[in-house]
Write a structure and sequence with these properties.
This protein is mainly alpha-helical and about 130 residues long. It contains five helices and two strands, in the order αααββαα.
Length: about 130
């Protein structure tokens, strides 16, 4: 099950963070079709956010066709995204690269900027 982490200083709306983290879990294969998302109550208890915020995020995911709410049962994954499993060799390479970047003195924001620049170069015009 996914555990949401809310960064109150990121400037990103809380419900958007939940949507993004759910999509990331879908891309990484941590969530699969049929898996149940945490209930709004479980997310509220873990993150101390408003239940309506969780419901708004889940509605957005449902609107995108990624999850479906089943009355009385919860919210379940309908489909996955991407093909980058958590145990991918590419992940191992990326983790080694991140270790080298950190050892070189780069901060998280530096790494994010560098990685985004490389992604932008290699995925120009990619609609995903």
């Amino acid at each position: 099950m996914v555990e949401y982490r809310i960064d109150r200083h990121s400037g990103v709306a809380t419900y958007v963070q939940i949507v993004q983290q759910t999509k990331q879990a879908l891309r990484m294969g941590l969530l699969r079709p049929g898996d149940r998302l945490p209930t709004a109550r479980e997310v509220v208890e873990a993150t101390a956010i408003n239940p309506n915020t969780v419901l708004k995020a889940y509605r957005e995911l449902e609107r995108e066709g990624l999850v479906e709410a089943r009355r009385g049962l919860g919210t379940f994954v309908r489909r996955s995204l991407g093909t980058a499993p958590a145990d991918s060799p590419l992940r191992t390479e990326l983790e080694a690269w991140a270790d080298r970047a950190r050892a070189a003195g780069l901060e998280r924001e530096d790494v994010a900027a560098l990685f985004t620049a490389v992604l932008d170069k290699h995925f120009q015009g990619d609609p995903t």
